Amino acid sequence: MAQAFDASAQQSLLTARAEEALALAKRLGADAAEVGASVDQGLGVSVRLGEVETVELSRDQGIAVTLYVGQRKGSASSTDASSVSIQAVVEKALAIARYTGEDPASGLADPALMATELPDLKVHHPWALTTDEAIELALACEQAGRDVEGIYQSDGASLSSGEGVRVYANSHGFLGTQKGSRHSLSCMLIAQDAAGMQRDYDYTSARDPQALRDPAEVGREAATRTLRRLGAKRPPTGTFPVLFDPSLAGGLIGHLLGGLAGGALYRQASFLCDRLGTPLFPDWFSLEERPMEIGATASSPFDGEGVQTRNNRFIDQGAIASYMLSSYSARRLGMQTTGNAGGARNVRLNAPLQSRDSLLQEMGRGIWVTELMGQGVNGVTGDYSRGAAGFWVENGKVQYPVEEFTIAGNLERMFAGLVGVGDDTDTRGSVHTGSWLIDAMTVAGD
Amino acid sequence: MTAYKSDVDTAAAILLTPGGLDLDALETGLDYAMGAGIDYADLYFQRTWQEGWVLEDGEVKEASYNIDGGVGVRSLAGEKTGFAYSNQITADALIDTGRTAAGIVRSGKRLPGQVVHSVSALSRYVGVDPLAGLSADEKVAMLQQADRVARAADPSISQVSASLSGTYEVVLVRASDGTLAADIRPLVRFNVSVIAVKNGRRERGSAGGGGRYSMARLRDENVAEQYAKEAVRQALVNLEAIDAPAGQMPVVLASGWPGILLHEAVGHGLEGDFNRKGSSAFAGQMGQRVAAKGVTVVDDATLADCRGSMSVDDEGTPGQYTPLIEDGILTGYMQDKLNARLMGMAPTGNARRESFAHLPMPRMTNTVMLAGQDEPSDIIKSVKRGIYAVSFGGGQVDITSGKFVFSASEAYLIEDGKVTAPVKGATLIGNGPEAMGRVSMIGHDMALDTGIGVCGKEGQGVPVGVGQPTLKLDELTVGGTQS
Prior knowledge:
The complex is a heterodimer.
Chain A: H1 7-27, E1 32-48, E2 51-69, E3 72-78, H2 83-97, H3 131-146, E4 151-170, E5 175-193, E6 196-206, H4 215-227, E7 238-244, H5 246-260, H6 262-266, E8 286-289, E9 313-316, E10 319-320, H7 327-333, E11 347-350, E12 353-354, H8 356-363, E13 366-373, E14 383-394, E15 397-410, H9 411-416, E16 418-422, E17 431-432, E18 436-444
Parallel strand pairs in A: 7-13, 11-17, 12-16
Antiparallel strand pairs in A: 1-2, 1-4, 2-3, 4-5, 5-6, 7-18, 8-9, 8-11, 9-10, 13-14, 14-15, 15-18, 16-18
Chain B: H1 6-15, H2 25-33, E1 40-56, E2 59-77, E3 80-86, H3 91-102, E4 117-118, H4 136-153, E5 157-175, E6 179-198, E7 201-211, H5 215-220, H6 223-239, E8 246-253, H7 260-267, H8 272-276, E9 297-300, E10 321-326, E11 329-330, H9 337-343, E12 351-352, E13 361-362, E14 366-369, H10 376-381, E15 385-397, E16 403-415, E17 418-423, E18 427-431, H11 432-437, E19 439-442, E20 447-448, E21 453-457, E22 460-468, E23 471-479
Parallel strand pairs in B: 4-6, 8-15, 14-22
Antiparallel strand pairs in B: 1-2, 1-5, 2-3, 5-6, 6-7, 8-23, 9-10, 9-14, 10-11, 12-13, 15-16, 16-17, 16-18, 18-23, 19-23, 20-22, 21-22
Helix pairs in contact in B: 2-3, 4-6
Domain Metalloprotease TldD/E central (chain A): 125-230
Family (chain A): Belongs to the peptidase U62 family.
InterPro entries (chain A): Metalloprtase-TldD/E_C, Metalloprtase-TldD/E_cen_dom, Metalloprtase-TldD/E_N, PmbA, TldD/PmbA_N, TldD/PmbA_sf
C-alpha cells in the first residue's frame, strides 16, 4: 500500500471516538445510544490498452450515531470523526429525536443477546502492494486477455486493494471491532463481428491476496466469455427450462433473502409473508448462513446491533425454517431477533450437486442464462421478468449464443421448480452456490 | 435567473474559511497537483448536508442527518488520471492529496497554471438551503398528511410509507486551466409508497418527485396529497393486473418518466468516454442516422429547478443545452474536459461526480426527446394489439452491444386501438439503435418526469431527469409470462 495504514492504531482511535460519542449522548440526555464508526483505505489502479489509466488512493471514514429518548429515535452521521464533529452529530441526533414519534418497538437489542464470543475470524489480510506492482498485475491481466485471438478492443483491467476497521458500540456496554481487507482484480474485453460488438468480463476477489486467481487466467477467461457471445441470435418465444449461471443463481438466493427479511415482512411487502414453516423448495434443498466461518467474505461474530451471530438455517428440507430478523423487525413481528441486523452472512446451500454437463443433459432443450439485465423483480408479489443473454441448448448441448430476450415467471414457482444445483460453485461473494436449473420460465424473444 | 459570480464568495466562506484557507491559498494546492509532466489538475471542494424523514404506520419513526465533505484532487497526464481525496479541507490536506495525485507521472515538463478566471454562468436554480425551508414540525405534518390521504383513499390500503429528503450541496472548483467556479445545489424529494391488499392479492404502488428547490415548495405545491393519491391509484390498478404478454409487439410509451427509454437506449451510448474508447454501439457514427426521422433528443442541464440541472458541472463548465440526435441524425456527444480534449471536441458541461471522493465522468443531466406532431389518442388508436406503458422502475444498458432493458411498473394492453386491461409489470428489452429506428409516432405532449431519477455508472449515483412525449415503437420485446 502506498500510504501507511496502521489498522491497530485506527482501531484504538475509533474505539475512543465511539466511547466519546456514547458518553456525550448520555450526558446530553439520551436514554440509550449506539455508534458505528469505520475507516477504510485503498488503492485502485486501472489500465487500458497496455497503459495506465487511473491511479486512485482512497480513504473513507465515517461515524454514525443513533440514540433513543424514551421510545423516540434520532440518527445522524458524518464523515468527519473529530471531536467537534461528534458533538455536532450527537446534538443533531438528539434534536431529531424530539420530533420522531413514540415507537414501542424501537431501542437497542436485548442486552442478554450481546455477543460475548468475539474470536478473530481472520478476515484481515493487508497487502503490501506498491502502485507499480498493482499496475503490473493489472497489465498482465489485460495483456493475457488481449493476446487471445479475436479480441479487438479492451475496456481495461482494474486492481483494487483495501483494508479497514469498523467499530460498533452501544450503551449496554457492548463494544465490537473488526479489521478486514478486500482485494480484487477484474478485466473487461470487447470482440466484434459483422453484427456488432460484444463485451464480457471476469474478476477475482478475496480477503486474502494469496487467494486471488492468477491475473493471466482472469484475462483469458474474460476473453473466452467475450468471444463466445459473438454471433448471438434471438431465441424463440415460449416456455423453456432455464439454467442460471452460479453468479445469477446467487442473485435468486438474494431475492429469497429479501423476501425473508424482517423489514419486508412487517411492512407486508414480501412475497413470503405468513409462509414460515411451509414448503418453498424441493425437499432435498436446504440453505443456511455461517457467520463464524474463518476468513470468509461476510464473517462477523456480532451483527449490526452487537447481537451474537449464529448459524441460521433459512430453508430446511425445502421449507422456510427461519426469517431473517433484527431486533426491531422481530419486535414488530412478535418474534426474537435472529442476529441478522445488517443481513445474512456467508450463505451456503446444502443440496446434492451435479456437474453443469449433467444439468444441461437434464435440461435437454432450453436456455443457459449467463447474464441478466435490469431490476424486473417485484419483491411484493414475487413476479420476475428480466432481460437476459446466454446460450441456446438442444439435446443437452450448447448450440449458439442468444441475446435480447427476457425470462419471466414468479419466484415462488421458480423455487418450487428447482430441478438441480451445479457443483460449479462461485465462491467470490458472500453467497456461495453453483448453477441452478429451473424447470420452466417464459422466454420472450423472436 | 440571478447573476452567478456571488456563489464563489459564498462557497469559499463555507468550504475554505473553516480550515483556514482562502481562494489565494488554492494556488499552492494546484502547484502540488500540477507536478512534473501533469497537463491539467483540478481541486474540487464539496460539502453536503443531507436530511431524511421516514413515516411508517402513521408515525415518523426514523429521521437521519448526514454531514459529508472534503476535497478531491485530480491530476491528468494525457489519458492518465491520478486521484486522491481527503475529508479535511486544510493546507496540509491539499499538499498531501496534490502530491499523491501528481504521482501518476514522475517526469516531464512542469506547466505553468493559467490565470484564474471566474466562470460566468446563469443560475438554473436558487442556491437556498432546502432543509431550512420547513420547520421540523412542518416536515412531520407533511408526512402525516400523506399517510391520512392514502389511507382515506381506499379501504384496501394496508401499509403507507412516506419519505421526505433533502440535500444542501456546496461545491467549488479550481482548475489549472484558470477555472474558478462554484455552485450551490439544493435537491429535495417526497415519496409515497403503499401496499394494497384485496382478495388475497398484495400489490405496491408508489409515486414521488422533487427538484432543485426548497422543501417549502413541496409543501406549497401540496405534493403530499398528490403523490399519496397517485400511489394509491397505481396500487389499485396493479391489484387488477393480468399476466403480461410475451413476445414482440408495438409499444406505446406515455409521456414523462418513460423517457428512461432514452436514457438507457441512447443516452449512455452517447457519453464521451465510451465513444473515445470505442466501446459504445454508437462509436464512430457522428453525422449518421441513428434514429427515425422526427426523433430529436437533447441533454439539457439548463431546465429551471429540475433534478438533473446544473448551473455549472463538476469541472466548472456551465451547464448547457446539448443536442444529441437531431431529426434522427447523431449530432453530439456529452463530454467532460478529459474526453473532450482527447477527442478534439468542446466540453459540454456534462462532467459529474457523486462526491469529492469520486472521479468525474461524462454523465447525463436531463435527457429529453422533443415533442412531435401526433395526437396522443391517435397513437393509441393506431395499435391493433400491443402494450401501453405508463410508469417504469429501473433500466439498464450494455453500451457495447446496445441492448437495453427497462421494467414497467404500470402498463396496459392495447386491443383494437383501445387501452384495456392493466398487465403485471414486465421488462421490455431492445437494441438502442434499432429501437430508435422503430419510433413511428411522436406526440405533441412532451412532459418531464416528476423528479425521481438516479443514474448509476461505475458505482457512482447522480440525480438525473428525463422527459419525452407519448411515443410509439413499432416493435419491442415484451417480457411477460403469457406466450
